[in-house]
Specification:
Strand content: 15-25%
Strand order of the largest sheet: 5-4-3-10-9
Number of helices: 9
Order of helices and strands: EEEHEHEHEHEHEHEHEHH
Radius of gyration: 20 Å
Distance between the termini: 48 Å
Shape: globular
Helix content: 25-40%
Low-confidence stretches: none
Number of strands: 10
Length: about 260
């Protein structure tokens, strides 16, 4: 494909990134990921076994790292220190893997990002050689600060994690997209295929989701729908939509040269 997503120098044909939590078992996880077409899968180091417990099933068997790019994340971390420690552990478990997703949460009710701690953790991780994709608020200034630190992608929330409320503030997302020099991916809040399509139509470089697929009544079917939605939204963005014209109807067919006129 000529239209590829490039993150930290690596090219990907899919612009859909998916999480690996909340499925009934690893078999369903694999089926959903395959249906989504995703090449990057994110894994919560504190909640998913990727070798920490050799006596339990490992996600690495269901989704081999040779087949997918792993994106370890810091879900469940509420301080910069915890997030840094978690990703250093992930690097050890994954043989030096350095592409990571940073999220530092503010409280357990909303899971809104704690931006001062996020900035602090991002600075430490970048200095430590990590390639940091970062979950953040939909604040253009905060996103620019994270880019300035050296994060390889910024990932503003569309709405609260797991809420399924869709994109609540498209205007802020547009401001972030227009000023960013790194990929911008919507992270959190997508509920259904139309939300993913809208994110891509706005000009986002990609979408990351978990609950929207894993929480659906038929996760594998929803994964396929999300794949199509991201692709359609991207194509619509590249095509360029017609301008909006309030009270200015234009016939689809020409009015000149009509038969019998």
């Amino acid at each position: 494909m000529s239209d590829i997503l490039t993150i930290a120098g690596q090219a990907y044909s899919s612009r859909l990134l998916v999480g690996t939590g909340k499925y009934k078992d690893f078999a369903e996880t694999r089926a959903a990921v395959k249906a989504s077409g995703a090449e990057i899968v994110t894994v919560a180091i504190r909640r998913t076994n990727i070798g920490q417990d050799p006596n339990q099933p490992s996600l690495l068997d269901a989704l081999p790292p040779a087949e997918f790019t792993y994106l370890p994340n810091t879900a469940g971390c509420y301080s910069a220190d915890d997030a840094v420690r978690t990703l250093r552990l992930a690097r050890e478990l994954l043989d030096g893997h350095d592409l990571v997703k940073l999220e530092v949460l503010g409280d357990p009710q909303t899971l809104f990002p704690n931006m001062p701690e996020t900035l602090k953790a991002a600075e430490t991780l970048v200095k430590d050689g990590f390639k940091v994709m970062v979950y953040c608020s939909d604040d253009p200034i905060q996103a620019k600060l994270l880019e300035g630190i050296g994060c390889v992608a910024v990932m503003p929330l569309a709405s609260l994690i797991g809420s399924g409320m869709g994109i609540l503030n498209p205007w802020n997302l547009k401001l972030i997209i227009e000023s960013a020099k790194v990929p911008v991916l919507v992270d959190a809040g997508v509920g259904t295929a139309s939300d993913a399509a809208i994110a891509m139509e706005l000009g986002c470089d990609g979408v990351l989701m978990n609950t929207a697929i894993a929480g659906a009544q038929h996760p594998v079917l929803m994964a396929g729908a999300m794949k199509k939605a991201v692709e359609a939204g991207r194509e619509a963005f590249l095509a360029g939509r017609m301008p909006r014209k309030l009270y200015s109807a234009i016939p689809s067919s020409p009015t000149t040269g009509m038969i019998g006129s």
